[in-house]
Amino acid sequence: MGDLLRVIGDDGSANPQLDPKLSPSDAVRLYRLMLMERILDNRMLGLQRQGRIGFYGPSVGQEATIVAPAMTLEGNDWIFPQYREPGAALARGMPLLDLVNQFMGNAADAVHGRQMPCHYVFRNGNFMSISSCVGTQIPLAVGAAWAAKIRGDRVVTLVYFGDGGTSTSDFHAGMNFAGVFRAPTVFVCNNNQWAISLPVARQTASETIAQKALAYGFDGVRVDGNDALAVYRAARDAVRRARAGGGPTLIECVTYRLGPHSSSDDPSRYRDEREVEAWWRHDPLTVYQSYLRHLGIWTEEFEADLEKAIGEEITEAVRQAETNPPPPVETLFGDVYFQMPPHIEEQLEDLKRVRRR
Amino acid sequence: MPAMNIVQAVNSALREEMRRDDRVVLLGEDIGRNGGVFRCTEGLIDEFPDRVFDTPLSEGGIIGTAIGMALYGLRPVPEIQFLDFIYTGFDQIVSEAAKMRYRSGGQYSVPMVIRTPFGGGIKGGHYHSQSSEAYFCHTPGLKVVVPSTPTDTKGLLTTAIRDPDPVMFLEPKKLYRAFREEVPEGEITVPFGQAKVRREGKDVSIFAWGYMVNVSLEAAERAAKEKNVECEVVDMRTLVPLDVPAILNSVKKTGRAVIVYEAPRTGGRSCGSRGSTRRSRTPLRTCTCRTRTVCSRESTRRWRSEPQITSRRAW
After folding, report:
1. What predicted TM-score, i.e. pTM, was given to this entire model?
2. Which of A10, A13, A274, B136 has its CA at a distance of 20 to 30 angstroms from the CA of residue B285?
3. Which of B22, B55, B102 to mutate to probe the A interface, most A CBs <10 Å?
């Protein structure tokens, strides 16, 4: 993988020059969130196959690039997600039940079944609402960071996007504004090699995505996205620099989407299974397990206990979520504007009348 | 009361709102030292050097970052130099600004005013003349405001800046310096969703916005003099929300309606007769009134066909 930033060695030891030196509790929390994301993905895909949720976008293989950056942030910082970051939402304190309610679009879903599954939001954790449009979140993250700078707040925004997202005009606009106004934004590109059916070589002729930062006047770094400590280290440094007034950073996390783009996708149509198998041998969970084992934390028993606890947590969340009724009809019409204008009020009344018939 | 044109009224509203609320910031192309290509922001950078930003030449970047500022808690007022150039930011307006409150269940909102000159009259050809308000009226979550006088400009812009939702504020560039009127000093607000009858009449109702209000008033004067027909001219002022009762009240009286707008015919009239429910559906038809549309042809504009610019006040 060439000149990638890596911290965890083949024997599971952390490179002493680069080790971010997580506390034992943070080291375990990072693993727990990654494992939670993996198990949640598998369970939700299963529910989707059973028709219990409508759609799901898994993140299998990308857990390190998703969870580790979120863990480097402080409480006042903001996350502008793409649509594959449940682990980041959980890291920001979003309750698992809220996530599952969103996947089901029920009456307890904070967005009332308006958004398709995997488009969650969690304001208490400054976790921005998700758009399906690729790349649109990038200028928003820059604008919020610029606003924080205008107000003199020591706040950093972190934005996730994929290799496909770097082809959008919003990527260019966001990167350019961030460079010109030195916005405290950390750009995290999850280069998972595939934008649905297109390989990264068909998104860009650049040798790396990280090098694009050079053109905008700030640093780009390229890390092994399946090495959680490397991702953590790069993100932590970038967040610190942004907070200190040093401006933005682009982090390219080289990783791999081991699963389908979504529950509606069949990757066998466009990629070779042998490529997938090769990447499974560099699974971010097993890489991080070797680190925890090296620390004396990870054992077979530790793994079994953790998997059992997470599994039970998810089972309970699904059980609770499935008791919720569908969202009431009024929520179709709310939140279009701050106050419901007369023409929408009329339409709501009309619908109620039709339903009564 | 000072006499102001629309350019000065925009400037006055921005200045007063920036003094009142330090969350109000301006961003756009050439709006700082240059004061904007129409000079609407002239001098504001001197009073507010840390809140007026000249940006790179990117409408998508301007609108996208302004949305981010609004999410964070500021009250950004981005300027798009001409409505004709807004389309690289159209995705941001439609997919992010308009949908944010709905898709986040009210957790996030985008209180932002996009100011932009629109419409013809400056011999600018189609890239400096279009009237694409229908695109925005078609998008739930946006409010669409079109003033036609200096007083309304100041009052509506002040209301827009204080509004909790994203507002498209379309300034009729032909009227920017067309005439002056006395504008009250200090705070004035004009509420959204209230049309204004500019001329009373009993024979036919004309519904218009922006520069077409001015044109309609001229036509009404001629109709009175030459044909002995008394037109009522209603300035819609806000297209979303639309003042449906004002439309109904006028056509109840006259039984005839003319809708006047600068855009091509297809889809353009929907701005002036929003409707999808029984009560508001084609309010003109419910009154069994005869309706005509006066608008542009289904071609883009050419500058050579525009009349000479006049600066006389029509009313």
Report:
1. 0.95
2. B136
3. B102
